[in-house]
């Protein structure tokens, strides 16, 4: 880590701060709103607005990110995060909470794909080396988010064993943590060098040369995200309790372990990508995880179900750093913010529709239906992705073949 450029280290530290806040908030959000007296309907609406705000802000980053400036927009988003944390921490007025959720700077997920990630996805390649170095940095970025976010979740709502030593009541006042983290991160964002910017951005549409590639990727990523909406963490917790009577303490430890597994898998994924390529890693690790996902409802008991869940999480997120690296590698530097923003917008805009459908399917069709549908749709995504993009590779992945061809020509000469 010490060998990384200063800008990369600053962005990774900022990501760690945000991940801790998001991990902390993912546990605190529902409990504190219930404590504040909001109805189930209001909480549901607030969650939907939270997801909608993330999608809208991702679109804004895609359209105007380069014109506003990456550092300026990055800093502004953290100031919005601080303001949103203040509203959540000090007010119980529903309209103000809706306004805070619409900023797109709060998240119920640790490894998110919102406006912050879109900017980081565009900035990191410009301050790292190409190819293997870029892949490695994306692995570090997501691993840090997964591990630090797991500790944040454990700090907010860990099992009884941990709460003997630290007890944090589910009160909205804890959202003031977002204020401190937002202000610190904004100050750190201002210290980024001009290298994170793109020089000489032309006026006009944010995507020109890469519009076709980004459109196809966005559609496929939307399908994958929609499928993932059937089996969000909150639903899996609900399902395991309903099917096997699993305790909250056991599930808390289980999902803490999944966070650690994901952190390790991010680092392994980038090493694998350096050997077999980004697209191959995305597809060939995702397909087995989909089979494990579809097998969970077939488990005869809780230990086997949890074993399948842990095995699935060890593989299912290996496409995250490789996907991020692939997107910014196959477009020009001046289109990275737009490409990251539009693909992340596509992922976020479809996600809110799946959880309600999952609940209806569970009640009306079969208890395991959401797992089968999610596994099937994700498998279709993987196969179509490979078929459409197997010939579109990052420039550095063509170099070995290029060198081989040149060597052959030299021998013939």
Question: How is this structure best described in words?
Answer:
This protein has helices at residues 6-35, 40-68, 70-90, 94-102, 115-126, 132-157, 160-163, 176-190, 211-229, 233-244, 248-276, 278-295, 302-316, 319-329, 336-350, 353-364, 369-389, 395-412. It is mostly helical and 413 residues long. It is globular, with a radius of gyration of 21 Å. Mean pLDDT is 83; it is low at 159-163, 165-170 and 400-413.
Supply the key terms.
single chain, 413 residues, mainly alpha, 77% helix, globular, disordered C terminus
Order of helices and strands: HHHHHHHHHHHHHHHHHH
Structural class given helices, strands, pairing? Answer: mainly alpha
What fraction strand?
Answer: under 5%
Number of DSSP helical runs: 18
Poorly predicted regions are 159-163, 165-170, 400-413
Helix content: over 70%
Identify the overall geometry.
globular
Rg (CA only): 21 Å
The major sheet is characterized as: none
Number of beta-strand segments? 0
| N→C terminal distance | 45 Å
User: What's the average pLDDT?
Assistant: 83
How are the elements arranged and paired?
Layout: H1 6-35, H2 40-68, H3 70-90, H4 94-102, H5 115-126, H6 132-157, H7 160-163, H8 176-190, H9 211-229, H10 233-244, H11 248-276, H12 278-295, H13 302-316, H14 319-329, H15 336-350, H16 353-364, H17 369-389, H18 395-412
